[in-house]
Design goal:
Blueprint (H helix, E strand, L loop, with lengths): L1 H22 L15 H26 L4 H13 L16 H21 L11
Helix pairs in contact: 1-2, 1-4, 3-4
């Protein structure tokens, strides 16, 4: 069961990268009037990098049949907080594309946190407490 949860976390991290880069990408700063990238550009870069770290950790745990629930929960919370304006943030204009990306990132990162929490309810083997 832990292997399946680690695989689920790996798939969620890939889904997060897919959402940020393909499905609901943030604004293309090269099309904007200013030459300086907007906040959402840096948010998407940080989400992709942290998602890659989460993917590597979950695949390594899947391969070794172990779990790192605190690490997965912490990374999920970081991914949830990044789109807020207290960390990196997104554009202030609610009509911008980064707001739909933010909603999908928060939903997927919530699933990552729930997956990390579910490791605590799995005993050795496939038994669920």
């Amino acid at each position: 069961m832990k292997k399946k949860l680690n695989l689920l976390v790996a798939l969620l991290s890939l889904l997060m990268i897919l959402f940020v880069r393909v499905i609901t990408p943030v604004c293309n700063h090269s099309k904007s009037m200013s030459s300086m990238p907007m906040k959402c550009h840096y948010t998407s870069i940080s989400i992709v990098l942290i998602s890659i770290i989460l993917f590597v950790i979950s695949i390594e745990c899947w391969r070794k049949e172990t779990s790192l629930p605190f690490t997965i929960i912490a990374i999920g919370l970081i991914l949830f907080i990044i789109p807020s304006n207290s960390i990196v943030g997104i554009c202030n204009n609610h009509a911008m594309a980064c707001h739909s990306t933010s909603i999908s990132i928060r939903a997927i990162s919530s699933l990552v946190v729930i997956s990390g929490l579910s490791f605590f309810f799995i005993k050795d083997g496939n038994k669920i407490v």
